[in-house]
Amino acid sequence: MRNDLWRLFSWLGVAFGFPWLFLVLLPYVKQSSAAPVPYAESDEAGFVAYPDPNMVRAGASDYGAEIYRREGCAYCHTQMVRPTYAGPDMWRPGWGGREEEGLARETRPEDYIGEGYAQLGYQRIGPDLANVGTRLTDREKLHIQLYNPRANTHESIMPGFRHLYRLVPADGRDAALKLEGKFAPEEGFVVVPTPEAEALVDYLLSRRKDAKLPASIRPAVAEAAPAEAPAQ
Ligand code: HEC
């Protein structure tokens, strides 16, 4: 009996001790000797501040983020350009950001600064939206995408979010969506966005994760320009 108890406790010790060793003690020892990473204030590529003030989302787009979350867009769309070892995102045109300006890159954790909630996404049924604001800049087209995706892409499987739009009598207002052919509303009526739809489109247009990064977190640039020593 005593022997059995002794065995039970020793095996319990092994069962908890090993995970503790590898999950707690070893990481603790490793992390406590890690040197802090310097945060450079500027680098040769012209970095001034992060996040880039041009990227700071204004006005209704925070409200738009709420709508994005509420409507479950993240069930089908991610907002993260994966590193190339994990997927071919960087090979897809426009996914990485403004290629013509040499800004296209993989997403970094810093890109979520200023967002109340990082909408990483859940799975990728539709395209990644990390840089959709640099890729699709036409408000009208984004509204049509939300109202009836098939009016933009013939075989789209994205659901329409028609409850964000109103069908109103045509009285020549500017906001009406230009829906043609079989997508057009019935005679004498037009489709106009609600403030929620406008906020969601503002939010989509603000999706840009291609701002310049400081040298300390972009080692490739620091290496390419050895003349400028990284700030301590
Ligand atoms: C059931 C999955 C699903 C949901 C939910 C969904 N989408 Fe989509 N979305 C897609 C698919 C698939 C495409 C690609 C086909 C197309 O362009 O219509 C797409 C395309 C898009 C595009 C065009 C992207 C590009 O690069 O061409 C935008 C913008 C977009 N979705 C925004 C949204 C927003 C905003 C929401 C939430 C209100 C949303 N989607 C909800 C599946 C979905």
Question: What would you note in describing this structure?
Answer:
This protein has 232 residues and is mostly helical. The protein has a domain at 53-212: Cytochrome Bc1 Complex, Chain D, domain 2 (Orthogonal Bundle), CATH 1.10.760.10. It has 6 helices and 2 strands, in the order H-H-H-H-E-E-H-H. It has helices spanning 2-32, 61-70, 132-135, 139-147, 195-205, 219-224, and strands at 165-169, 189-193. A two-stranded antiparallel sheet has the order 1-2. The longest helix has 31 residues, at 2-32. The mean pLDDT is 84. The site of heme C has 26 residues, from helix 3, helix 4 and helix 5. Heme C binds at residues 68, 71-73, 75-77, 125-127, 132, 135-136, 142, 145-146, 149, 152-153, 156-159, 161, 200, 204.
Number of strands: 2
The profile of the biggest β sheet is: 2 strands, antiparallel
What is the level 1 CATH name of one domain? Answer: Mainly Alpha
Low-confidence stretches: none
- The ordered string of helix (H) and strand (E) elements is HHHHEEHH
Tell me roughly what share of residues is in helical segments: 25-40%
Looking at the overall shape, the CATH architecture of one domain is Orthogonal Bundle
